[in-house]
């Protein structure tokens, strides 16, 4: 590829295109090549979902596809029984696929483990028996607090095998957060690790857990994985080493069928100062939704594809599209324990080359970081086997989309920009890569069986190209069933405003004249400047389209004159200096892209933005800085020291004259 100036010119040329067609070679072999699947699903949504559910192994058939007599407490596939662990493992082994690789695990220090479906099944059966030996059974909650190591997958599948709902806590959360979740879920067991590594450093985990777990009398078992060799105390009668417990356990544990609506897991939302929400998913509907969407959105060919999503299992992306979706489809995945820039900033591309990755799925924030680090780090590696790219977690700005398309995908890989939530369980809005054109910045259209609308404050559907509230207008199999132990909060948070079956997403959006949805961001991420509503994502997109900007995050800040003002935290490319002239240039650039009203009133030069370990920008912390409030919880950040640097920069901020 040409030099940096030529790349910039190529990207600018790409940004002039509204549409991108899926490459003909891709379409030729795609699973879905036209929109007839949407039409079939629209004629009979429930019947269509029942058809997709039949791709799974059911121990007992269902009697009713959807039960809505107690809406919004919907039930799917009533009367049906199945086991999720069986559907992810046993049926593949029984079909002769036991020697297929399930996971290529790569540790941050270069360790490698290759795990087949047969090996994974053997470990899961022993783990399930180890839990049962400690009295854990169907309905008992098991906490999981592990880094990105294969044992986290084993633990989740073992819980599913015996009907014990798991409560995975992101490994970057504090021990206090684990305590809160274990206490509220009344967990009877916790699976954790001696220590965890991050960017060459090792931190104790088990000893931190011990510090806060006293008093939880219901927590009768702590199972500890030996991973880093960090010394930790083992309490008699409660604590067991993972390897010893599995070695002592019986090797066979038949997968017991459970009701379709049996709770599968609880996953607590994060990123808010409010009380976390325990989002509860069940078995049959969830597995149906994620199995179908993984296969068809990623156009999976399990015999030849290698899939890599470098997210963390502690988030819903990890549950649905690192663990359950891939394994339900018999896929081979790459699992990486480490940061995107350790041991070097090209590690992801090194792994793609090493394992022959064909499908890659990551977040826009991570893509923008890779842009900052430079295209040459991508070009050093052979990515010729890549055939499909995906984006998840937040709206992707067009320039990052174009860079992803050109630099990573070589202009030959469709990009599926997926919109969904922890609550939805499965992808909701995106393009089917062999059947639909792509628009940079737009997620696309609802998947088959889904229906979405953009409405005003009263719930009336707005005209095309008008911003409003995103809603989902019918139930779907992968949806949350309730908030754990808070049914009233479930109703008030998602259904009360417009009434079932209209689910209030909480995102602002618009639907363009072609029917494509543009998800703008959370409703509280819309800034009201002098009565004009401006999307933070739109302003961010304008900022990062400037050739000298690497990353940007925008928040609203209280302002005496305009109600709210736009405050932008901007990371410049390495060779650029943040000064008054640069700030003026950026304001003019945004004014040119959007309008003068969208010019940031304050620009804060940020060497680094506050990000979680999975790469998500923590805008609520930036909001705290902008408003001069006490900084909230920073335990999930990749580098907590960033907050002090940004606070200092805020004190010397440049305000627009």
Automatic annotation (TrEMBL):
Record-annotated Acetyl-coenzyme A synthetase N-terminal domain positions: 37-88
Domain AMP-binding enzyme C-terminal, residue spans: 538-616
Entry GO MF terms: acetate-CoA ligase activity; AMP binding; ATP binding
A single GO cellular-component term on record: cytosol
Top EC class, one word: ligase
Any Gene Ontology biological process: acetyl-CoA biosynthetic process from acetate
UniProt EC number: 6.2.1.1
Keyword Nucleotide-binding: yes
Homology family: Belongs to the ATP-dependent AMP-binding enzyme family.
InterPro entries documented for this protein: Ac_CoA_lig, ACAS_N, AMP-bd_C, AMP-bd_C_sf, AMP-dep_synth/lig_dom, ANL_N_sf
Domain AMP-dependent synthetase/ligase: 92-475
Alphabetical UniProt keywords: ATP-binding, Ligase, Nucleotide-binding
Name of the featured protein: acetate--CoA ligase
PANTHER family to which the protein is assigned, alphabetical: ACETYL-COENZYME A SYNTHETASE (PTHR24095), ACETYL-COENZYME A SYNTHETASE 1 (PTHR24095:SF14)
């Amino acid at each position: 590829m040409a030099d940096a100036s030529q790349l910039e010119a190529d990207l600018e040329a790409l940004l002039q295109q509204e549409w991108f067609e899926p490459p003909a070679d891709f379409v030729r072999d795609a699973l879905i090549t036209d929109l007839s699947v949407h039409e079939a699903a629209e004629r009979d949504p429930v019947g269509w979902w029942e058809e997709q559910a039949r791709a799974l192994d059911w121990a007992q058939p269902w009697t009713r596809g959807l039960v809505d007599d107690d809406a919004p407490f919907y039930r799917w596939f009533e009367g049906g029984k199945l086991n999720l662990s069986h559907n992810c493992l046993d049926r593949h082994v029984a079909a002769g696929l036991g020697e297929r690789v399930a996971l290529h695990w790569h540790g941050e220090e270069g360790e490698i483990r290759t795990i087949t479906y047969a090996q994974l099944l053997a470990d899961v059966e022993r783990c399930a028996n180890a839990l049962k030996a400690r009295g854990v059974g169907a309905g008992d909650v098991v906490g999981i607090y592990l880094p990105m190591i294969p044992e986290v997958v084993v633990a989740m599948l073992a819980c599913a095998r015996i009907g014990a709902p798991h409560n995975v806590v992101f490994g970057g959360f504090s021990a206090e957060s684990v305590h809160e979740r274990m206490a509220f879920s009344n967990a009877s067991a916790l699976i954790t690790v001696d220590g965890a590594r991050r960017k060459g450093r090792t931190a104790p985990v088990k000893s931190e857990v011990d510090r806060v777990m006293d008093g939880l009398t219901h927590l009768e078992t702590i199972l500890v994985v030996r991973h880093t060799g960090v010394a930790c105390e083992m309490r008699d009668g409660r604590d067991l080493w993972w390897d010893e417990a599995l070695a002592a356990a019986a090797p066979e544990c038949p997968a017991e069928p459970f009701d379709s609506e049996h709770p599968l897991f609880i996953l607590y939302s994060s990123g808010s100062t409010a009380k976390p929400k325990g989002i509860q998913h069940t078995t049959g509907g969830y597995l149906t939704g994620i199995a179908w969407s993984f296969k068809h959105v990623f156009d999976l060919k399990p015999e030849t594809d290698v899939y890599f999503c470098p997210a963390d299992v502690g988030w819903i992306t990890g549950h649905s599209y690192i663990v359950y979706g891939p394994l339900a489809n018999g896929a081979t995945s790459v699992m990486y324990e480490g940061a995107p820039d350790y041991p070097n900033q090209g590690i992801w591309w090194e792994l793609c080359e090493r394992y022959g990755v064909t499908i890659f799925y990551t977040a826009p924030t991570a893509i923008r970081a890779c842009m900052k680090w430079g295209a040459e780090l991508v070009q050093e590696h052979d990515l010729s086997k890549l055939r499909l790219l995906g984006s998840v977690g937040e709206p992707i700005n067009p320039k990052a989309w174009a860079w992803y398309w050109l630099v990573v995908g070589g202009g030959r890989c469709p990009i599926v920009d997926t919109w969904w939530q922890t609550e939805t369980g499965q992808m909701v809005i995106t393009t089917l890569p062999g059947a639909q054109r792509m628009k940079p910045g737009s997620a696309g259209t609802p998947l088959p069986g889904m229906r979405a609308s953009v409405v005003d404050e009263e719930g009336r559907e707005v005209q095309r190209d008008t911003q409003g509230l995103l809603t989902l207008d019918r139930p779907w199999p992968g949806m949350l069933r309730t908030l754990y132990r808070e049914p009233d909060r479930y109703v008030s948070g998602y259904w009360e405003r417009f009434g079932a079956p209209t689910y209030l997403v909480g995102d602002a959006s618009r639907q363009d004249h072609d029917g494509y949805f543009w998800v703008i961001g959370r409703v509280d991420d819309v800034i009201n400047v002098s009565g004009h509503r401006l999307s933070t994502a739109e302003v961010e997109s304008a900022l990062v389209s400037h050739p000298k900007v690497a990353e940007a995050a925008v928040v609203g800040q209280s302002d005496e004159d305009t109600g709210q003002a736009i405050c932008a935290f901007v990371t410049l490319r390495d060779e650029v200096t943040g000064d008054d002239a640069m700030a003026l240039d950026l304001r003019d650039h945004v004014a040119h892209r959007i309008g003068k009203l969208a010019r940031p009133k304050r620009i804060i030069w940020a060497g680094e933005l506050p990000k979680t370990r999975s790469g998500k920008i923590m805008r609520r912390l930036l909001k705290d800085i902008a408003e001069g409030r006490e900084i909230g919880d920073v335990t999930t950040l990749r580098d907590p020291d960033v907050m002090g640097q940004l606070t200092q920069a805020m004190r010397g901020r440049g305000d627009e004259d």
